Amino acid sequence: MSADTTLYSATFLIGFGDCDPAGIVYYPNYLRWFDSTYHGFMRSRGKTHQIFCNENGLIGTGLMDVGATFRSPGRDGDDLVISIVSAEWRDKSVRFNYRGTVGDRLLIEGYEVRGLFMRDGDRLRLAHTGPLKAYLEGDDGERPRT
């Protein structure tokens, strides 16, 4: 992942309750902050996740895979900046790559792979990512296809 491009960033104050008994961030909190950053990215384009899904016949943009590499500990009182540094678009999935920093110190690198899910009778089906890509990149887009 490259730090050259930032698609969106959000800042989180790490609190005492975010940390484990050793005083460092409890790892699931990073996944929560990745998710919050993704939803902030959507809102920064003018719509909430729910509005986007309703307008495109989707039930959600769900996680299909997630991973992280921890580089340095985050601690109570740190201002953590989570940035989406790139998006890798595929026909029916998108991988968002994240970096988390406190000042110049890298804490975490990670990713989420998301799909656009819609109902097909009584089951779920992956839709094409075109509408999400168009929305996040500022185009009008198209209705999801299966």
From TrEMBL:
CDD domains: 4HBT. It holds the Pfam family 4HBT_2. This is Acyl-CoA thioesterase FadM. It comes from Amorphus orientalis.
